[in-house]
Amino acid sequence: MTELLVAVLKFALGLAMLIYSADKFILCCINIAERFNLSKALIGLTLVAFGTSLPELVLTVAAV
Q: Which positions ≥6 away from 58 have C-beta within 8 Å?
């Protein structure tokens, strides 16, 4: 029973951290766009796309 509770708590903590960090990442991208006077669409197509593809790149390099 305690193993299940620990697993659920770890999952909830991981999900909360993921949501928080994703929110901060988006806010930082918006700040970069405003600071360099770029459109938010351009930032969305470059920084956010790179940031979401980076984990797959790291896993692929590690697998090779």
A: none
